[in-house]
Amino acid sequence: MVNYPDGRKARPAEHKTGAGGRGMELEKEINLTNSYYLDTDRAVIHKKPTPVTIVKVDYPMRTAAKITEAYFKVPSTTDYNGIYRGKYLDFEAKECASKTSFPIKSIHEHQIRHLDSVIRHGAIAFVIVRFTVYGETYYVDAGEMNSYIRTCGRSSIPYKWFQEHGILIPYNYVKPVDYLQIVDQRFFKENAND
Amino acid sequence: MVNYPDGRKARPAEHKTGAGGRGMELEKEINLTNSYYLDTDRAVIHKKPTPVTIVKVDYPMRTAAKITEAYFKVPSTTDYNGIYRGKYLDFEAKECASKTSFPIKSIHEHQIRHLDSVIRHGAIAFVIVRFTVYGETYYVDAGEMNSYIRTCGRSSIPYKWFQEHGILIPYNYVKPVDYLQIVDQRFFKENAND
Q: What CATH number belongs to B13-49+75-191?
């Protein structure tokens, strides 16, 4: 298991299995982290609502409008964005159940293009990938990952690549996915220990 | 009718009525404008999906998952955000059918608080209000509008206030709500004529 630079262990073992692996655990933990950032006024970062095409809505008397037919849409952007220290921040998050590699198709082509374009405009852009088997959550620069995807000629990114190019995101009870700690290290070095 | 600083007339009269007033025209026009900004790589600004709580999903064989029960949620942020010239940009857009005033309740308390908080973090934040009767679409600084809302002791903002404090957004066939022109004037003066 890879440890953090300061010698702490990676994510506690009891988090390795359990509710994780159903693909929602990472999302919940990021939402908790974002709520903490919001409550402490550190950053304003939200998950975008799931995009759906609404086809039919009923308006029953005296009760709320009820959507009775709708379909999931392919997202045209990433799931998360917001503002941190005056900078636009944008990221996508994915869980990966494989021990050996992350399937590139987990990230939509649209999302890759979106990340490229916000980078061009000056964003802090990254991808969070959790290998559920190892209980490890990596921060990866979106630009670095996109250029790997474009040149690798493979359908997946090896786990080893994340070990070499990613940065482990520390786990913390109130900030389960404290990605801003990595953003501070990468972009605001003078305040890395906030 | 108020004209633009350069003497052009406000929105053409044929846009004053018609499909407008059903509350979706402004949204469509902003989406068109955002697509134009995106296609020309000028900015990356998207409308967030409508937030819904999904209660029931059917998975019919061989066809896409179908949502059969869902409800609209009160949004916790504004509808639009993105990046422009390296800055985080955030806004809400509303149509108003009244001739005399804009009802404050059209903007959720959550959205007002969200705008306050992104301003604190350094965002360009504003509200777009269209008076459909006049065919006029105003850019209003979110900070200025929020402080008016907090101190006015009224349930609506007079039309006159928009004339005095807002800036008319020019209409253009390819950019029906060219709000970045106003953002340039307000925040990037040296390039106001891009």
A: 3.40.1350.10
